[in-house]
Predict the structure.
Amino acid sequence: MFQAVNHSKFAGDLPRNCTFEESDWRVLSNFWHPVAFAHDVQDKPVKARLLDVDLVVYRTSQGVSVARDICPHRGTKLSAGWVRDDNLVCPMHGLCFDHSGQCTKIPSMPDQSARIPPKMRLYSVLTEEKYGIVWACLSGEPGWPLPEWEGIGNPDLKNIYVPSGTWHAAASRHVENFNDLAHFPFVHGATFGNEEPAPVPLYKVHETDYGLTFDMPYLEGGNRFPDGVEGENREVVYTYELTFPFTTIIHIKPVDSDYVQYFADTVCPVSAHETRIFQVVTDTTDEPDEDFLVKESLMINDEDKGMVEGQHPEDLPLDLTEEIHIPADRISLEYRRALAKKFGLGAPIAS
Ligand code: FES
Ligand SMILES: [Fe+2]
């Protein structure tokens, strides 16, 4: 019933009711994760949840700020408040907080010129805005950089944002699915998949500075590219670039044209088995077809969602002997190996 004395509310603390193993939570808290689309954070605070931590995301003239969604006064949810005069205002007693989280005004104080103690401040979280996405690092000490996204980061190309969806699945299960090729004919026949199952060539996975990459030729069913090239099916090469732990971009290049589509997918581990998807798409046309790209992406996501939500176990097995692998699984094997070896994720639980 009572909170222990000396309980710390530092933004990097393990949340109560944490659904992650503690060691996994600590490792993941050192990465940047997406928490909102920047365009969704305008004149009102927005709530988010990352690694079981409730966050408030708000915008001032200094840019986007992220903090724990707890007022330091009496613990009210700040995301139910508002932004006024460049401050986030708590809905309960109206305390105001600036972009850095410092309290700037206590409306009920008799002497409004009295000094507000520096400790009256939000539990602020390290934040960056890039690629139209708000990123947060709970530990405040990112051990890994933000992904480098060719195409999406090119200011001459126009980015399209796919409305964010939530999957009841682990972030790592989503990433594996996003990098899996052998499911296209079976799951994506109604969109880009070629319903004729073809063998997946034995591809090589290469390590990059911050992740993994591989190339894959594929004969897509249908022709979804606005490059004026006719054809019932299109031969393409996909180049996948995965940035640990939960980010991937695919460069999609039809082999018979100069057209390139860049499809970026990064996910927020909301909790151990809940994942929020952020996708950004662009292409080398001046005016990517927003309606088509959004509709197509949402359909593809829907095709995957049910499959991934039904996978068992819900946690990605990082012990490679736990599931049986096929040759098309090279990327999945390298991904699992790296998560365990490089970062110590999925460490045996101390008894
Ligand atoms: S609880 Fe936020 S101002 Fe009192
Ligand atoms: Fe898929």
